Amino acid sequence: VTMDEMIHHTRAVTKGTKNALVVGDMPFMSYQASTTEAMHNAARFLQEGGAQTIKLEGGVSIAPTVERLVSAGIPVMGHIGLTPQSVHQLGGYKVQGKTLKGAVKLMEDARSLEEAGAFAIVLECVPRSLALLITERVSIPTIGIGAGEGCDGQVQVFHDILGFYTEFTPKHTKRFANLADNISIALAKYSQEVKQQTFPSQEHSYHLKQEVLSELQSQVI
User: Fold this and answer.
1) CB pairs under 8 A, 24+ apart, for 5-14?
2) Which residues contact 125 (CB under 8 A, 6 or more apart)?
3) Of 25, 44, 132, 161, which has the fewest CB atoms closer than 10 Å, so is most exposed?
4) Is 124 a catalytic residue?
């Protein structure tokens, strides 16, 4: 995903929001190369996209960039644990922090983000006990996705919550609806009625007044 694509979509979101906090998700390699590039791209999210803050992935290694962004007046949300942009380096979509070494690293990442000035941290696919410990040890809010109920807040993918997909559901996702079946049934019924010419019916059509229709028919050759 490019910066231009993200700015386009962020602008669309901000146009439709009133009270929600819009967080611009910094895409891959938009902030890793240099602090200067990170500053430029983060500013685009706020100036062009209309976001109020940005989010980036990483802990200790990215803390200096976070500190520089915050010092420039750009609010930053951190993201540790399973970081999708580094999924190939992590060996796939796997739970992070299951070993003592991994757990200690995530604790250090969280603390470094807090010290750098991040206002919140997303914890993704982290054991619930570790996520709770991190939440207790840092003073900024934690937002969990696959990190248990002990986080300060929760986030899920909209389509997973509503059951848009049937092929795969992550372990940490709960379907609060099953719209995939409803959508399939509705589209199949729509297709059938169009082919049978029962839709659109008179009820779903616009009509001329009879006198206008009669006059029109008499004039049209």
Assistant:
1) 6/30, 6/45, 6/49, 7/44, 7/45, 7/48, 7/49, 10/45, 10/49, 10/50, 10/51, 11/48, 11/49, 11/50, 14/49, 14/50, 14/51
2) 81, 82, 93, 94, 95, 96, 145, 146, 147, 172
3) 161
4) yes
Give the pairing type, strands 153-154 and 53-55. unpaired
Residue 208: both structure tokens together? 């001329």
For the beta carbon of residue 91, count every other beta carbon within 10 angstroms. Answer: 7
Better-scored residue on pLDDT, 93 or 22: 22
Residue 167: pLDDT band (50, 70, 90) is confident
Amino acid at 3: M
DSSP string, 95-121: ----SHHHHHHHHHHHHHHHHHT-SEE
The active-site residue, picked from 108, 124, 136, 215, is 124
